[in-house]
Amino acid sequence: MTTVPPPIDVARLRDEFLELVSIPSLSRHEGTVARRLVGILGAMGASVDVDDAGERVGGDTGNILARFAGNQPAAPPILLSSHMDTVGPAAAIHPVVEGDVIHTDRTSVLGGDDKAGIVAILEAIRVLRERGIPHGDIEVVLTICEESGLMGAKHFDVGRLRARRGIVLDVDGVSELITRAPAANRMSFTVHGLAAHAGMCPEQGLSAIQMAAQAVVGMRLGRVDEETTANLGVIQGGLATNIVPDRVILRGEARSLSVPKLLAQTEHMRQRFEEAIAGRSVRIGDRQHTARVEVEVTRQYECLDVPAGADIVALVTGAARAIGRRCPTRSTGGGSDANVFAARGLEVANLACGMRDIHTVNEWVDVRDLVLTAELVLEIVRLNAAPREAGPAGSIGR
Ligand SMILES: [Zn+2]
After folding, report:
1. In angstroms, what is the span from residue 119 Cα to ligand 1's centroid?
2. pLDDT of 390 above 50
3. Alpha-helical regions (H) of the chain
4. Within 10 A of 278 (CB to CB), how many other CB atoms are there?
5. Cis, peptide link before residue 89, omega less than 30° from 0
6. What SS3 class is residue 347?
7. Separation of CA 115 and ligand 1 centre (Å)
8. Using one digit for the tens of pLDDT, what is the confidence trace for 159-185?
9. pLDDT at residue 3 above 90?
10. Which residues pair with 236 in a beta bridge?
11. What is the pLDDT of residues 136-145, one digit of tens each?
12. Cβ 160 vs Cβ 347: under 8 Å
């Protein structure tokens, strides 16, 4: 049975999106947009709090936690979350409206990643409250520094939440639910060789660049298998063309939906460097100089792996069905705050929210996708408070 979703105020949604994307909010510089959002959420009737994550990551604001009291005390509280920061270029953002499509003048990203998620949350809550639709408590978390290593979410105390489940809105596409996302390792490899004059005594040197090149040749990179990717993204080293380089640093990452595969890929990359330097040494006078490699591996985030039978999946797909839509589940190769919240025990999945061609100056959104996402969020919150026998929400609390 489908229900006609209560009407979303399309003009209000579009105008709010245009206002928010016009406020630049690079990671660690979310202060201006955060102050605006604190004002909006407060005016909507939430109790709003900003945490100290900003001080801890060197930013100009913390994460926002806004609580809306429900009118159905028996309903389980639900978490709705998006991030406030954007990637660059985004020093100034000039949105261009062409019919239903919003893009930029191509000098910056749009920042629909993730303001498309923020406006869907805000508009859904407005309509719920204006129309007196039954709903439980809603906790809105708007994070900082998602784009710089999920730092805002990592510094957010999930112990402050009453909600045990919810959705993060932070993925491209529309009406799709991400239930699987990779774990990721960040790596740095520093190859130490030996400096020497390149013209007079190159045999007294050990070229760090050449050894690094040997390591990279034959390394499995790119799409390693259907669950695993790897990349070396930064290389730095050397001082001058006439000096055998004694040091080069390579930075990269590996990701996989499977942790054993992630560990195997990480070990493969480390092994390639070990092999490239093996036996490389030079004797000068009575001293033997041996090449070495320093490897640093840090787990950036853990997997998101929501079982197909999880309540949050039933809730979201049930909500989509109720408004006559489909919301299939899928995996992604990107991490999000959902990975962090899931690792801390919350049952969260990542709902697509209409952003397109993200992290490029061609980024765009279609206002109709923003409307559909807001309708879906509204129905998710409504269904979450529906009586047990009424539908998928009946399974909640198992
Ligand atoms: Zn994002």
Report:
1. 14
2. no
3. 10-21, 31-43, 53-57, 112-130, 151-154, 208-216, 259-277, 311-322, 337-343, 367-384
4. 12
5. yes
6. strand
7. 9
8. 999 999 999 999 999 999 999 999 999
9. no
10. 249
11. 999 999 999 9
12. no
